[in-house]
Amino acid sequence: MAPRRQTPSVRLRRMAAELRRLRGSADLSREHVSEQTGINEATLYRIETAKAKPQKRTLMALLNLYEVPAEQREYLFALLKDATKQGWLRPYHSELPEEYTAYISFENEAQSVRNYESLFLPGLLQDENYARAVIRGVLPSATDDEVEDRVRARVERQAVLTKDKALKFWAVVDEAALRRVVGGPAVMSAQLEHLRRMVKAPNITLQVIPFSAGAHPGMPGQFVLMDFEDPMDTDLIYIDSMAGDLFLESDADISRYKAIFDNLVAVAHSPQRLGLTHQGSGQRREGEGRLGRP
């Protein structure tokens, strides 16, 4: 039996992606890098695809060739230090780069994202005012500048849905996410209208689990399942909790969350039965059903 391939860690994958980007920015092929550094092309390929952890001197040679500034070098060497650790649980930080860099990077590289949300609408489907109300509510001690940085980042993330090779996004939300009046009736009404427009895109699927479904496997909390174009690039699970950002990457965790998502899809209403009028908004159009009804 062939040995089981080790799943690259989040840190190793993050470093590999950065090294690919840096080589691209330097406009160098792997062959050219090999000629100038003496690093074997096959070794470089394995490093850039997170199949091998570079030695410190190898990483230094690459960073020197790419003329990487000191601050970024420190970041990459920090990744290298703990590159083989599985999972990444980080304490919460209010600074945007510390909180979102890893997740946004993976989301941007993903081929498809499956997202379950129990309390809020998915970040990729939020309009600016709803996002602002969510962030202010979740982070009551954040400054105005911190809130606006996060709002800007959330809105900019949504470009993955409209880029040339658009992300395939499948979201399942609990009905509570649509019933909760975030930011007041006017903000919620505008958000639902925004959602109505967004779900018309062929790469976006949205389903709602009605209250009548009772208890279901998603009730413990939200999660995101990301997969990537390269079949050798393993899927990732992302969980945002009060304890920090948790990335899961073992085969067992991935299989478990895929099964949970499939179960949620099964108990949710089909996309064709999606109604987007908030019960308390008083704005139902003629012929439009209430939430979760035809």
Automatic annotation (TrEMBL):
Residues 283-294 have a biased composition (Basic and acidic residues). Residues 275-294 are annotated as: Disordered. Residues 19-73 form the HTH cro/C1-type domain. InterPro entries: Cro/C1-type_HTH, DUF5753, Lambda_DNA-bd_dom_sf. PROSITE patterns: HTH_CROC1. The keyword DNA-binding applies. It comes from the Bacteria. GO terms for molecular function: DNA binding. Keywords: DNA-binding. SMART domains: HTH_XRE. This is DNA-binding protein. It comes from Amycolatopsis lurida NRRL 2430.
